[in-house]
Amino acid sequence: MRLPPLSAMRALEAIRISGSVTGAAKYLNLSHSAVSHQVAALEAWSPVPLFIRKGRRTELTEAGQSLAETTQQAFDSIRHEVDRLPIRGREVVSIGAIPMVAQLWLPDVLPDLAKDLPQLSLHLGFALFDRPARLPPNLLISFAHRSRIKRSDRLLFSGRAAPVCAPDLLRSFNGDKARIMREARKIHDEDSRLWRTWHEVTSTATEEGATPLRVSIEDSSLIRAAAISGAGVALCRLQFVRRDLEAQRLVQLSDAAVDLDYFYYLRRAPKLRGHPDVERVAEWLIRRARLDRAAT
Known about the structure:
D-Maltodextrin-Binding Protein, domain 2
């Protein structure tokens, strides 16, 4: 099916935002009749009713509301991209990182990175596998099993994880680490793979007939925050809770660790490998990761 006129879609978005044809006319700085003309064009184009008239008011039907929401999302994406054009016009090194690194490591090192490389423009963003980055990263920081990491990649941190919890939660179990591991809620992300691995590696299991209470968190970068809040016991990447353990915001419950063969790694975009600015940032991040590893 052909798309409706762009001006008609702008009118539809404006009606949704303002709540009426009169409001849409003010929003778009057009006359009431001009917006009414666009409404008529949409009605002629659509195979189902998009508008319903109640007296002198024109409101959106369910189909019209759905189309208007999608239209607004599309226009917002276009507006966002237009706002980013100046960034794309500059020489900028873009770093894309999975949320754990983007939230728990990069913000801490960014001031030093900017200080040491003041001549470079930088862009930081999330590297999310379920949707493309708006500014494709020159440098990608991700996480994988050693077997999936390429020879050209550089390792940054170990992904080893151990159980941690808030000190107050441990005190509520009278400091009994074995008991809290048996009875406390387990915090995990959507697949709970880490806890299955933990039970296999440590040869522990839930008591027969017991149904463990759990807290499932969609984004693994939020697991640390949930543990600090006292929501339960979490298997956290030790590299990213080092300061929390030192500050006693978290307590490590066992010396045993899992995911010893998983790593955070740095990957250069193939077409920019060797680019001087990209290499400067890459080598800086590798050196900083080495220093942070030594402090763990």
